[in-house]
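User: ok so my PI wants both of these folded by tonight, can you help

Assistant: No problem, let's get them done. Here's the first:
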Amino acid sequence: MEKRGQGLSTTAIILIVLGVLVLVILIMGFIRGWDTVAPWLSSENVDKISQACSVACSGGNTYNFCSADKELTDKDKNKIITTCAMFAAVSAFDEYKVAGCPSITCVKKPCAELKINTNGDVKLGEIVTAVAGTPCSDLIIASASTDVQKAECEKETDCVWVLSNANNPINTCTGTYDKLDIAGKYKISQFASDLVDPNKPNEKKVCAIVVT
């Protein structure tokens, strides 16, 4: 009888210990996030989306690259639903490494049809004014470090960062770019034709999209 009682007592202790462990794991999961406690449960799929877009490009699948929505979730749990073409075009998404596809030409859409669905909020394209021919040197803040100056210069694809040399004593940002008059919006020239105002040759209307 004593051995039987002792066995039941040991079983009960094991069950209690297991229960405590499960409770601790649940608490840590809800407090610190399941991605930390159980990485294999992570919903992050940036590499998967990047590879899927690359496959669509190499296979010449125009619909899959230009029109089919992809749902991307990054390490910070930001959820973005849009097309491969949009991931490749918008500079705010450069960190996801979705490459463009020179072999595929996406049909240009009206600006208002462009969308990026971010955590349920659909952001539509807007026609905004851009001042053409703005010197890239205007992007440089003299008091900033060289790394910051270079980063600011290279945010615009038409600007080139040139290091100092015998013919150029200081680092410079060369070229010109289309300066949008509204901060926080990104030009997407691949999707909407520029609308030129004949009375203002140095200005043009371009399609931009809000990225929060």
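One down. Here's the second:
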Amino acid sequence: MATLSYKIHGLEKALNKLRKHTDRLNQSKANKETRCFIGYTQDYAIYVHEIPDPPVHHPTGNWKFLEHPKKRMARILQEEIKRVYKQTQDIGLALTTAGLGLQRASQLEVPVDLGALKLSAYTALEKDREAVAAEALAKSNSHKMSAREQRLKDKG
């Protein structure tokens, strides 16, 4: 029985390069599909955020408490994502780290007398969003209930 074989010079090297390139493309695709969310879970958050002259005046804080810090910090957030990703090769960690920085800056601008709103802030990767948001909502609702109970106690 005779066999016929050919050896193509450089084929193995070319295949290895192709495999590495494919791995990089797959990693890049996974990175593009990773999303991080920063938000607030109290149902009135959108109104406080979007109405420039609310009917109730808040002595501190701002109405665009998430948007303004995001615009101010855009370059810093990009650099933070790059820095953490370069160190860890974990895009989820990089996005979450930057997201937590934005969340903190945003919470500093939430009208102070709205403690439940401030406590309803969350930062989460898309896969964890529902659970993390639910936890933030429960925490802020608990604060709201405690604040109501304290007000009733103070009145009575």
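The two ends are 102 Å apart (CA to CA). The chain is about 65% helix and 5% strand. Good luck tonight!
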